[in-house]
Write a structure and sequence with these properties.
Layout (H helix, E strand, L loop, with lengths): L2 H23 L2 H22 L5 H19 L6 H8 L18 H8 L6 H11 L5 H7 L4 H17 L10 H22 L4 H17 L3 H15 L24 H15 L6 H14 L8 H14 L3 H13 L3 H9 L9 H13 L3 H13 L4 H12 L3
Length: 400
């Protein structure tokens, strides 16, 4: 077996195996170390004996044994939980243990990683580390922080789960939808972290996580977020030109969009909306679907998009939603009204790059070129991604 094949086996199975180990041992570090031991053993034995019929069950079996070995020699050997785990060694295991189907504990792990007692930064980092299998270095690079900082963030998060006794379970009853909001927020943060600076690994992982949550706990808002991210990714092939400069939605070649993916996303969205339990992600996905349905920019149904932003604002009355609603108002034919709405947001969104870009465009439409140029300068100064800086710089240079 090649290293590439082993890496694929790890990617395909690590999340489920790690979740099962954490469920049993209640120790993130021990579970990660045991899984790493199992992968080393796989690299040693699989090339000679062949890949097991159930790689995930094989990895779980070997990782459990390595975890028990580590527990025997650890300083925690007298802990009650450790003794309970070591007691499992005396229980007769089936001869074909490595062929047993393992329980899927990933949903419990997702809710644990996204517990409200953890900061949002810690939730994102722990989710990427445990559910997606990314290393601390890879996560640090994705979020532009030092490797040591990310290591500390992960260490503190694991310690807080252990020391605070955060329960390793899926919430029940009404609590699940309240907690689901945090889970979906983390997934969308991961998606945006990859989508804005074009890190497709993060965006793909976010979509995979959302699909997993929807499969294990199907709810309309989960379907709405999956549809929203799928619609964004379907337009991705048309986002950049040959020089890696961003192309606005208005100017994109819509023939390059993945129309099969758009159709799949719309089907799932319509099924979610039919349940009459609307939420912010469903409404945002409906807005994105309207963009995808339009044959060209001029054919966009801006009045309906504006109405949907109004509905979204009732559910999520944030300055960012108000800004998007104002932009839709401008495209629907009321640029002066839109500019007044945007001006009212200047204090709340002073450090938000899209606010200054939107204000610049509205000022330019009203003939206030000098003021528009200053707004573009402000937007550029708040932008780190090279593609976005180039896009905004071109918009500025195109002013009269």
């Amino acid at each position: 077996m090649s290293q590439a094949a082993l890496a694929r086996a790890y990617t395909a199975n690590s999340g489920r195996v790690l979740a099962a180990l954490i469920a049993q041992f209640r120790d993130f570090d021990l579970a990660e170390e045991a899984l790493q031991d199992a992968m080393i053993e796989a690299a040693r034995t699989w090339p000679r004996g062949g890949t097991p019929s159930s790689p995930s069950a094989w990895l779980l079996t070997v990782a459990r044994r390595r975890a028990f070995d580590r527990l025997r020699v650890s300083k925690r050997a007298k802990d009650e939980t450790v003794q309970q785990n070591l007691g499992l060694l005396t229980v007769a295991q089936p001869e074909d243990e490595a062929a047993q189907e393992i329980p899927d504990e990933r949903l419990r792990l997702i809710f644990t990683c996204c517990h409200p007692a953890l900061s949002q930064e810690a939730q994102v980092a722990l989710t990427l580390r445990t559910l997606c299998g990314l290393s601390a270095r890879e996560i640090a690079q994705a979020f532009l922080v030092p490797h040591a900082t990310m290591n500390q963030r992960l260490t503190r998060a694991k310690a807080k789960i252990r020391n605070a006794g955060i329960p390793y379970r899926v919430p029940e009853g009404a609590e699940i939808e309240a907690r689901l909001a945090a889970v979906l927020s983390v997934i969308y943060l991961i998606f945006n972290a990859g989508y804005a600076p074009r890190n497709p690994v993060l965006s793909a992982e976010a979509l995979r996580l959302c699909e997993l949550v929807h499969h294990l706990q199907p709810l309309p808002e989960t379907a709405g977020l999956w549809a929203l991210m799928s619609l964004h990714m379907a337009r991705d092939p048309a986002r950049l030109d040959a020089d890696n400069t961003l192309i606005s939605l208005k100017d994109q070649d819509r023939a390059l969009w993945d129309h099969a993916a758009i159709a799949r996303a719309k089907t799932r969205l319509l099924h979610a909306l039919a349940q009459s339990r609307p939420g912010p992600y469903q409404i945002q996905a409906a807005i994105s679907a309207l963009h995808c349905e339009a044959a060209n920019w001029a054919a966009t149904d801006w009045p309906q998009i504006n109405a949907l932003y109004g509905a979204l604002y009732k559910l999520s009355p944030t300055p960012v939603v108000a800004l998007n609603r104002a932009v839709a108002e401008a495209h629907a034919g009321a640029p002066k009204v839109a500019l007044a709405l945007v001006e009212a947001l200047s204090a709340a969104l002073a450090g938000y790059q899209p606010f200054h870009a939107a204000r610049a465009e509205l000022l330019a439409q009203g003939g206030q070129v000098h003021a528009a140029r200053l707004e573009y300068d402000r937007a550029i100064s708040l932008t780190a991604a090279p593609e976005e800086r180039a896009f905004l710089s071109k918009k500025r240079s195109d002013l009269p």
